[in-house]
Amino acid sequence: MIGKLGDILFEVSFDGQNKKILNFTDLKSSGGANYEKHTRKGQKPALEFIDLDTDILTFKMTLRSDFGVDPQELLEKLNNYKNVGETLNFNLGNNPIGSGQYVITSCNAGYEYITNGGKIRKIDVSLTLEEYVEMIYKNTDIVIKSKKKIEKKIVHEDFNQGSIYK
Domains of the chain: which residue ranges? Predict the structure, then answer.
Protein backbone atom coordinates (compact mmCIF):
# COMPACT_ATOMS: atom_id res chain seq x y z
CA MET A 1 0.00 0.00 0.00
CA ILE A 2 1.34 3.40 -1.00
CA GLY A 3 -1.32 5.38 0.80
CA LYS A 4 -5.00 5.97 1.30
CA LEU A 5 -7.53 8.78 0.78
CA GLY A 6 -10.75 7.89 2.58
CA ASP A 7 -11.47 4.37 1.35
CA ILE A 8 -9.50 4.83 -1.90
CA LEU A 9 -6.37 2.71 -1.72
CA PHE A 10 -3.27 3.80 -3.63
CA GLU A 11 -1.40 0.66 -4.59
CA VAL A 12 0.60 -1.19 -7.20
CA SER A 13 -0.27 -4.89 -7.20
CA PHE A 14 -0.14 -7.90 -9.51
CA ASP A 15 -1.41 -11.35 -8.54
CA GLY A 16 -0.25 -13.15 -11.68
CA GLN A 17 -3.41 -12.40 -13.68
CA ASN A 18 -4.81 -9.10 -12.47
CA LYS A 19 -2.95 -5.88 -12.00
CA LYS A 20 -4.02 -2.75 -10.19
CA ILE A 21 -2.08 0.47 -10.39
CA LEU A 22 -3.49 3.52 -8.67
CA ASN A 23 -0.99 6.10 -7.55
CA PHE A 24 -0.60 9.85 -7.46
CA THR A 25 2.10 12.27 -8.61
CA ASP A 26 3.18 15.82 -7.87
CA LEU A 27 2.06 15.84 -4.22
CA LYS A 28 2.50 19.37 -2.92
CA SER A 29 1.73 20.78 0.51
CA SER A 30 1.29 24.41 1.46
CA GLY A 31 0.32 26.25 4.60
CA GLY A 32 0.65 29.66 6.09
CA ALA A 33 0.16 31.88 9.08
CA ASN A 34 -1.98 34.97 9.64
CA TYR A 35 -0.46 38.11 11.12
CA GLU A 36 -1.96 41.43 12.11
CA LYS A 37 0.11 44.40 10.99
CA HIS A 38 0.20 47.27 13.48
CA THR A 39 1.35 50.54 11.97
CA ARG A 40 3.55 52.75 14.12
CA LYS A 41 4.31 56.38 13.44
CA GLY A 42 7.89 56.83 12.27
CA GLN A 43 8.72 53.12 12.59
CA LYS A 44 8.28 49.93 10.65
CA PRO A 45 5.00 48.12 11.32
CA ALA A 46 4.96 45.47 14.05
CA LEU A 47 3.59 42.03 13.23
CA GLU A 48 1.44 40.07 15.67
CA PHE A 49 0.91 36.35 15.11
CA ILE A 50 -2.83 35.57 15.03
CA ASP A 51 -3.25 31.95 13.91
CA LEU A 52 -2.41 29.35 11.29
CA ASP A 53 -4.07 28.84 7.92
CA THR A 54 -5.36 25.40 7.03
CA ASP A 55 -2.94 23.22 5.08
CA ILE A 56 -3.62 22.62 1.40
CA LEU A 57 -2.52 19.53 -0.54
CA THR A 58 -2.55 19.15 -4.31
CA PHE A 59 -1.74 16.10 -6.41
CA LYS A 60 -2.52 14.42 -9.73
CA MET A 61 -3.80 10.94 -10.55
CA THR A 62 -4.14 9.04 -13.80
CA LEU A 63 -7.13 6.69 -13.79
CA ARG A 64 -6.67 3.97 -16.41
CA SER A 65 -8.91 1.01 -17.12
CA ASP A 66 -5.94 -1.06 -18.36
CA PHE A 67 -4.46 -0.65 -14.85
CA GLY A 68 -7.46 -2.31 -13.18
CA VAL A 69 -9.31 0.89 -12.28
CA ASP A 70 -12.74 1.99 -13.51
CA PRO A 71 -11.95 5.65 -14.32
CA GLN A 72 -15.57 6.85 -14.48
CA GLU A 73 -16.52 5.12 -11.21
CA LEU A 74 -13.54 6.49 -9.29
CA LEU A 75 -14.08 10.01 -10.66
CA GLU A 76 -17.73 9.86 -9.56
CA LYS A 77 -16.59 8.78 -6.08
CA LEU A 78 -14.14 11.70 -5.84
CA ASN A 79 -16.79 14.17 -7.02
CA ASN A 80 -19.27 12.75 -4.54
CA TYR A 81 -16.77 13.25 -1.70
CA LYS A 82 -16.37 16.86 -2.86
CA ASN A 83 -20.08 17.52 -3.34
CA VAL A 84 -21.16 16.29 0.11
CA GLY A 85 -18.18 17.71 2.02
CA GLU A 86 -16.97 14.29 3.19
CA THR A 87 -14.00 14.49 5.55
CA LEU A 88 -11.30 12.07 4.47
CA ASN A 89 -8.21 10.69 6.14
CA PHE A 90 -5.12 11.00 3.97
CA ASN A 91 -2.19 8.70 4.73
CA LEU A 92 1.12 7.79 3.16
CA GLY A 93 1.65 4.20 4.20
CA ASN A 94 0.11 4.14 7.67
CA ASN A 95 1.24 7.68 8.52
CA PRO A 96 -1.23 10.58 8.34
CA ILE A 97 -0.25 13.63 6.34
CA GLY A 98 -0.64 16.78 8.45
CA SER A 99 -3.70 16.53 10.67
CA GLY A 100 -4.90 13.64 8.52
CA GLN A 101 -8.39 15.13 8.00
CA TYR A 102 -9.12 16.79 4.66
CA VAL A 103 -11.97 17.74 2.33
CA ILE A 104 -11.77 17.86 -1.46
CA THR A 105 -12.19 21.49 -2.52
CA SER A 106 -11.41 21.00 -6.21
CA CYS A 107 -11.56 18.04 -8.58
CA ASN A 108 -10.54 18.69 -12.19
CA ALA A 109 -10.72 15.93 -14.80
CA GLY A 110 -9.37 15.60 -18.32
CA TYR A 111 -10.89 12.78 -20.38
CA GLU A 112 -7.81 11.59 -22.26
CA TYR A 113 -8.88 8.37 -23.98
CA ILE A 114 -12.42 7.36 -24.95
CA THR A 115 -13.15 4.36 -27.17
CA ASN A 116 -15.92 3.78 -29.66
CA GLY A 117 -19.24 3.61 -27.86
CA GLY A 118 -18.16 6.16 -25.24
CA LYS A 119 -16.20 3.81 -22.97
CA ILE A 120 -13.79 5.94 -20.93
CA ARG A 121 -10.35 4.34 -20.70
CA LYS A 122 -8.23 7.12 -19.19
CA ILE A 123 -8.92 10.21 -17.09
CA ASP A 124 -6.28 12.58 -15.70
CA VAL A 125 -7.42 14.08 -12.39
CA SER A 126 -6.05 16.99 -10.36
CA LEU A 127 -7.20 17.21 -6.74
CA THR A 128 -6.98 19.96 -4.16
CA LEU A 129 -7.54 18.97 -0.54
CA GLU A 130 -7.88 21.38 2.35
CA GLU A 131 -7.28 20.51 5.97
CA TYR A 132 -10.52 20.10 7.89
CA VAL A 133 -10.61 21.57 11.38
CA GLU A 134 -13.79 21.25 13.43
CA MET A 135 -15.30 24.37 14.96
CA ILE A 136 -15.08 24.37 18.72
CA TYR A 137 -17.29 26.64 20.81
CA LYS A 138 -16.45 25.49 24.33
CA ASN A 139 -17.03 28.10 27.00
CA THR A 140 -15.63 30.89 24.85
CA ASP A 141 -15.69 34.41 26.30
CA ILE A 142 -17.45 36.97 24.16
CA VAL A 143 -18.15 40.60 24.82
CA ILE A 144 -21.55 42.03 23.98
CA LYS A 145 -21.49 45.80 23.48
CA SER A 146 -24.63 47.86 23.59
CA LYS A 147 -25.15 51.60 23.99
CA LYS A 148 -26.29 51.15 27.60
CA LYS A 149 -23.69 48.75 29.00
CA ILE A 150 -20.99 46.24 28.22
CA GLU A 151 -21.47 42.73 29.57
CA LYS A 152 -19.43 39.59 29.31
CA LYS A 153 -21.15 36.23 28.83
CA ILE A 154 -19.93 32.66 28.43
CA VAL A 155 -20.84 30.89 25.20
CA HIS A 156 -21.64 27.27 26.03
CA GLU A 157 -20.81 24.12 24.03
CA ASP A 158 -24.27 24.04 22.45
CA PHE A 159 -23.92 27.61 21.15
CA ASN A 160 -25.92 27.85 17.93
CA GLN A 161 -26.24 30.72 15.48
CA GLY A 162 -25.84 33.54 17.93
CA SER A 163 -28.18 32.38 20.68
CA ILE A 164 -26.86 33.27 24.14
CA TYR A 165 -27.88 31.27 27.19
CA LYS A 166 -28.16 33.13 30.48
Answer: 3-32+47-131, 137-166
